[in-house]
Design goal:
globular; 161 residues; 4-stranded mixed sheet; 5-stranded antiparallel sheet; mainly beta
């Protein structure tokens, strides 16, 4: 039977978002060494600092429409997408969206739509833009979408505690 040696390295390294590396195991058997995945533990003892990009306000987002270089007729689905598909905020945050429809023709309409509890629908012709704000007052995950381009023009708002 092969001999198995276990060596345990313990460390206390701070990682992003206060995740702490707790143990790393090295198993040696029959001349082969195996590194097992580290065990990750959340640490509520370290404060988390969040910063936005320079010159940007916290929770301010720019969303542009984009037409993919593909044939909607050939694919059978719309070829429009949002340039930003994930927004993560905390409950109580004020969220500001700068929404730009980059279409060159006024007939090329897109919306920024969310259902309850946020109930919003900003419908823009090609070349138009709008800015709006709302308070993220409900925890959970919410889909935003363009009513003209489902299922490809969708995004996700995640409201954390």
């Amino acid at each position: 039977m092969p001999e198995i040696h276990r060596i345990v390295f313990s460390s206390n390294l701070e990682l992003d978002r206060a995740i702490r590396l707790s143990y790393l195991f090295l198993l040696v058997t029959s001349g082969f060494a195996f590194l097992t995945p580290p065990i990750m533990l959340a640490s509520a003892q370290s404060p988390v600092t969040e910063t936005s990009a320079p010159g940007m306000l916290t929770n301010e987002y720019y969303i542009f429409t984009q037409e993919l270089n593909a044939s909607a007729e050939k694919l059978g689905i719309p070829t429009s997408v949002y340039t930003l598909t994930n927004i993560i905020v905390h409950v109580g945050d004020t969220v500001t969206i700068h929404f730009y429809n980059t279409g060159v023709n006024v007939e090329n309409r897109h919306t920024f739509t969310m259902q309850s509890p946020y109930d919003m629908n900003y419908d823009l012709a090609g070349g138009e833009d709008t800015t709006f704000s709302f308070t993220a007052n409900t925890i959970g995950g919410f889909t935003y979408y363009s009513t003209y381009d489902i299922p490809t023009m969708i995004g996700h708002l995640e409201v954390l505690p």
